[in-house]
Structures are given as structure tokens and as C-alpha cells.
Amino acid sequence: MRVLGIETSCDETAAAVVAIDPSGEAQILSHAVASQIGEHRPFGGIVPEVAARAHLAHLDGLIRRAMGEAKLDFTALDGVAATAGPGLIGGVLVGVTTAKSIAVVHRKPFIAVNHLEGHALTARLTDNVAFPYLLLLVSGGHCQLLAVEGVGRYRRLGTTVDDAAGEAFDKVAKMLGLGYPGGPAIENAAKRGDAKRFDLPRPMKGKPGCDFSFSGLKTAVRAAAETLPPGPLSETDVNDIAAGFQAAVVDSVIDRVGRAFDRFADTYPRGRTLVVAGGVAANTALRAALESLSVKRGFAFVAPPVALCTDNAVMIAWAGVERLRLGLTDPLDFKARPRWPLDPDAPRATGAGVKA
Ligand code: KG4
Ligand code: ZN
Q1: Helices 215-226 and 165-175 sit at what angle, rounded to 10 degrees?
Q2: Whether residue 199 sits in one domain with residue 186
Q3: Which of 48, 70, 75, 290 could form a disulfide with 88 if both were Cys (CB 3.0 to 4.6 A apart)?
Q4: Is residue 331 situated within a structural domain?
Q5: 59 sits in which H/E element
Q6: Is the peptide bond before 305 cis (omega within 30 degrees of 0)?
Q7: Confidence of residue 353 (pLDDT cuts 50, 70, 90)
Q8: Pocket of ligand 1, candidates 115, 169, 172, 176: which has the most ligand atoms within 8 Å of its Cβ, to mutate?
Q9: Tens digit of pLDDT for each residue in 256-302?
Q10: Is residue 282 one of the residues assigned to a domain?
Q11: What CATH number is associated with residue 90?
Q12: For residue 336, pLDDT beyond 80
């Protein structure tokens, strides 16, 4: 079974082909990604209209490259999968329309993939993780803890009451003049910084439940910067604030995951794996802390390679494979969705200003 995957929901245009043989052995046949970072950098963040145009300009070439690297033509595919949400709708429409066109012309099944499901199932491709498992999804748009029961079956244990973790990294980086995207820049600066110099809060630490909050931390970072003498921040100041901020995020996430372990273990005594996914999962300090917490709690820890944690089309092709082999395909009138929660029945997060 061979599936072409297409990803266009944010600022990465990507196409990939994933195959699975009858024994269940999966193989990444190609993996093409074009980042739009350069196109958005002058604006200090992602501009949806710029993103949609760039997807349109690059997607055909990337699909050609992915099919070429896989040494396949469209007739050899068993399905075409595209991210159909959640995300910036202009970009999502570019990917969905392209996938539907290929599916129609070559009479192949179309699979509408939830971008978050792509992140959620990647660990099954890379590490053969069995259901159920606990998932920490930390990206630019999302920060959630989910019990993954099966394909299409998710139970949300916690989410952010305000900003996503990656969003906080990006905003603090902007504040410190570190540019966009913020995560890697903060991580880099933090390596040379003193995390103890500034006393920053650990949002939600010790509170019941598994929800996250990062907007107070962002405000505290601004207040800390304002205690310094007027004028541009020195390199040492920037490094120390970055290190302090990163340590606060890690502490806060670790506290939340610790609580999620308890809740998950109560409901799923067989599940003993923590999977981390999403762009922020590229952060080495966070990975190390999650790994040591998992060891302490008797859980296996799985973090897919960084290139498969940040947005990519391999995860969409793989989610396509997982769905297709269960007979889950979608009609050609499937509508792209700007919002699409993995667990529509989840209770609202405990806090004000809740984002879906
Ligand atoms: O999953 P992703 O590529 O796109 C979304 O679906 O959001 O995640 C992008 C986010 C950005 O906010 C970026 O700053 C963050 O992941 N990120 C990091 C690191 N690398 C990327 N955050 C912290 N440390 C990193 N090394
Ligand atoms: Zn993502």
C-alpha cells in the first residue's frame, strides 16, 4: 500500500510517499519539505495570505519531487492524503484541492487527514508504538495532552487555557529581538544563559488537572526585561532571560505531564508509553526532562526524529496509510476545516480565554 501525503496547513509546504508491505513493515519512500521561513521573516510571524500563495507556488513542484524520489507515478498509488484542517484555511484549501484533483484524475481514494492526527500517529511509523499511549502534542498552534486509544480515537486530558507552548517561544523570542521562528533561537541562546538569574513563574504548577497556561509567563518575561537598565538588552541579558524562560516552560510542562501520567495510568493500565510530538518536541531540554520523568514513572519515552516532529508530509501520508487500511476514506466534497479538535467531546479547559 502506497500513499501520497500533502501538508499545507501552516508555513511548511510538504509532500511525501509512505509505503507499507503486507507484513506491516513501513517505509518512507520520499520526504520533500519547503519551508516558508524566509518569506515570513520580514513580518516577524506567519502571514496567512503570504502562506497560501507560497503553498500554491511550491506544491506542484514538491509533489513532482516526492513522486520522483519514490520512483512512482500516480497510477501506482493506493490513496492520496492531505491535511484538511485544522490550520490556516487558505493553505489547507490549496493542499486539499490538489489532493482531490489527483484522486479524481487517477481514480484513487482521497483521505482527509487531521493535521493533529498526523502528529499523533507519527510514533507508530517511527517506533511501532502500540495503542493506547499518552501523547504530549506541543506545537506553534497547540499544547495538549491526549490519550490515544486508536486511529480517530482520542481523549483529551488537558490543553492550554491561553497560548500554545510554541507560540510562547515565538512571542518571547520576538520580545528579545531573536527573530522568527523563536523556538530554535531561544534554545540556542538558552545554552549560554543562566536560568537562575531571573525568578520566573511556573504557570499551573501544582494545580489540579492537566491544563497548561503560558501567557502569564510571557508577561513575567517582559516585566523581568523591564527591570534592566533602559536601552538594548546585552547578549548576556538575552541569554539569561531565554534560559530562564525555557526552564520555566520545561518545569511547567513536566508538572502537567506528571499529572497526566496518573490519570492515564488509572484509565489505561496497559498503556506505558509517553509520546511527544509537534515542533516544540524538537527542544532538547524538554526532551531530556520528559525522558527522565518517564524513566522515573516507569513509562517508555518515544520522541520521533526532529524532522518528523516539525510539520512534514510523511506524517500525513502515514495517517493516510493508517486510515486507508481500516477502510476510512473520504468523499470528494469533504470540506477543509479551519478548526478540527481531535476530541470534540473534551470539556473546556479550566481558565479564561480558552482557545479551541
Ligand atoms: O509543529 P510545528 O512545526 O507547526 C505547528 O503545527 O505549529 O511547530 C512549530 C513551533 C514554532 O512555534 C516553533 O518556534 C517551535 O515549534 N519550535 C521550537 C523548537 N523548534 C521549533 N520550540 C522550542 N524549541 C525548539 N528547538
Ligand atoms: Zn504541526
Answers
A1: 20
A2: yes
A3: 48
A4: no
A5: helix 48-70
A6: no
A7: very low
A8: 169
A9: 999 999 999 999 999 999 999 999 999 999 999 999 999 999 999 99
A10: yes
A11: 3.30.420.40
A12: yes
